[in-house]
Write a structure and sequence with these properties.
heterodimer, A: 458 residues, alpha+beta, 7-stranded antiparallel beta sheet, 3-stranded antiparallel beta sheet, 12 helices, 22% strand, B: 111 residues, 60% helix
Chain lengths: 458, 111
């Protein structure tokens, strides 16, 4: 039979009542809290007993202290004198237990008690919440800036939505914690001013678990939707790296505490190394992302490569929904086809291309982008984004043209310097296609292509 | 309305200061207050620790001896003055109480 056990659970830092109740229940089952670590709370086996717990906060303590300060030790002595023994502590939070049946509480003056709790919160938890909350808000603003410049690209990639969800979850978690504490503090202040006991706290761990479950589900869904195993592995590696980084941070900080580094030096070294490691991870991810974009790395993911006039070209055979052979008669059979894009529950965007190999340059080529809008209300936003994208280039604009030739609801043709270009924007029921054939397309071919494109997304 | 700091004293503040009329170890106050009040008033260890810090900060007490982590304290003139004001306030309250109830008793006797 094991004499120790480790429990992982979420808790709200301010939830003194919830923590106390949980620990008293554990004592009745024969488990006494021994340690609070970054890897869970450790309990020691004891004879089942009715033990009183109390959660207090010592504002002068820090998570990076090499050991308790003289003031902290003196506080412990005061508590021990009244029968309260320290079970465990983590930063400012200190948990004491008392085996007497009716102990005098550690705090007997509600106003003073609240003042101490709030001082500890202002020194430890609240600044962290504001820091991470601010960081999450900056990320959110950056997301909307990106959305305004690449509406479809952002909303059609699962990784973007999961990133958004992650930051929103973080904001929700932090707000939940901060609002929970501040609303309790408001009630507690009113009680303390009347000289009454501080009201019990109410934890919101169910809320935390739900948010984490949503985030985990979104992460798993994203890995599955990435399709290419390499991307999924990169995603899993990123998550593992983040967990390992958190573990390393805790281990490093503990080691520095044992080596008697001051709290300031410890926090500087720990945060410095964490930031450096995060930058390395970001650089690795950026490198992996850039290397995986076909336009940047032509040979990436190619079936085979060939040399033409001293330049290496990749040949791909991605399946594409409409081929040149579907629109026109051709005997050529040396093609490279590529598909690139992403899909979310809001919309999908795929860029397709079919190009003749370089020794067959006289043959036509085709490229088109298909945007399938799954949430109807976003249709006009997508259309405007696609129309606007070309005008951003300067000198280019889409002008309306006859949609009936394409069997479309609306059709636009690209113009530049008052000249027509061979690019059309064609709007169907739930699909918008930017179609660029590199040959002079006939009305008959337009009708054939339109027939195929009108069936996209069905 | 929150109580202005040390404008008036709570019962616990009053007894902690009272204990420090004579030099006394901080820890001993935890036992002295219930003895002094026959168990009517208890001061929690955390509350006492914080009160001593605040009394020191506002110069109502001074440290007299430091032996390791054991520290003893004694009231300053400011602290004595504070205690006296509180005593007078409590007395005034008690006198007001007496006046009201004695008047009532006297008028009851008159009838």
């Amino acid at each position: 039979m094991k004499d120790t056990k480790r429990q992982f659970f979420l808790f709200n830092f301010y939830d003194r009542t919830g923590i106390k109740t949980r620990l008293e229940n554990e004592a009745r089952k024969g488990w006494l809290l021994e340690k609070m670590t970054g890897f869970g709370w450790v309990f020691r086996r004891i004879e089942p007993a009715d033990i009183h717990y109390t959660v207090t906060y010592f504002p002068g303590a820090s998570a990076f202290d090499p050991g308790p300060s003289d003031r902290e030790l003196s506080f412990r002595e005061f508590c021990e004198h009244s029968g309260w023994k320290l079970a465990a502590s983590s930063a400012q939070m200190q948990i004491y237990y008392n085996e007497s049946p009716h102990p005098v509480p550690i705090e007997t003056d509600p106003e003073l008690e609240l003042e101490t709790i709030h001082r500890a919160a202002k020194k430890g938890y609240l600044p962290m919440f504001y820091l991470f909350g601010g960081l999450a808000m900056i990320q959110l603003v950056m997301f909307f800036v990106r959305l305004s410049s690449d509406f479809i690209g952002v909303l059609s990639r699962p990784s973007n939505l999961v990133t958004l969800l992650s930051w929103l979850t973080m904001i929700a978690l932090i707000s939940g914690e901060a609002i929970g504490y501040l609303s309790w503090h408001k009630k507690a202040r009113a009680a303390a001013e009347e000289g009454s006991e501080l009201p019990p706290t109410k934890g919101r761990t169910a809320y935390q678990y739900v948010l984490l479950a949503i985030l985990s589900a979104a992460l798993i869904a994203m890995f599955i939707s990435l399709g290419k195993p390499g991307f999924a592995i990169a995603g899993v590696v990123t998550v593992i790296f983040c967990i390992a980084l958190a573990a390393l941070m805790i281990k490093l900080s503990n080691k520095l505490k044992k080596l008697n580094f001051s709290a300031k030096a410890n926090s500087l070294i720990t945060f410095g190394i964490t930031i450096a490691m995060t930058l390395v991870l970001t650089a690795v991810i950026c490198f992996a992302v850039f290397a995986s974009i076909p336009s940047i790395a032509p040979g990436y993911d190619a079936d085979y490569t060939y040399e033409y006039q001293g330049v290496t070209f990749g040949v791909h055979s991605d399946p594409i929904p409409m081929r040149i052979e579907d629109i026109m008669d051709t005997t050529h059979d040396k093609w490279s086809t590529q598909a690139y894009g992403g899909s979310t529950f809001l919309m999908s965007e795929y860029e397709y291309s079919q190009r003749a190999l370089m020794d067959g340059q006289d043959h036509p080529s085709l490229s088109y982008t298909v945007v399938d809008i799954k949430l109807g209300m976003l249709y006009n936003n997508c259309k405007n984004a696609m129309l606007g994208k070309r005008s951003d280039w300067g000198g280019y604009e889409y002008r309306t043209c006859d949609p009936s030739l394409w069997g479309a609801k609306e059709a636009y043709r690209l113009w530049s310097m008052d000249e027509e270009r061979d690019t059309w924007l064609l709007c169907y029921d739930s699909v918008i296609v930017e179609f660029s054939p590199r040959w002079e397309i006939t009305a008959e071919q337009m009708a054939v292509a339109g027939g195929i494109m009108s069936s996209f997304g069905r | 309305m929150p109580r202005a700091k040390f404008k008036t004293l709570t019962e616990q503040m009053f007894y902690v200061l009272l204990c420090l009329k004579k030099e006394c170890y901080g820890l001993d106050i935890l036992d002295r207050v219930p003895q002094m009040t026959e168990g009517r008033v208890n001061v929690g260890s955390g509350t006492l620790y914080n009160l001593l810090e605040q009394f020191l900060e506002s110069e109502m007490i001074v440290e007299t001896k430091v032996e390791g982590r054991r520290r003893s304290y004694i009231l300053t003139d400011k602290g004595k003055d504070m205690l006296r004001k509180e005593y007078e306030r409590i007395n005034a309250q008690a006198n007001d109480y007496k006046k009201i109830f004695e008047e009532e008793d006297m008028s009851n006797e008159g009838h």
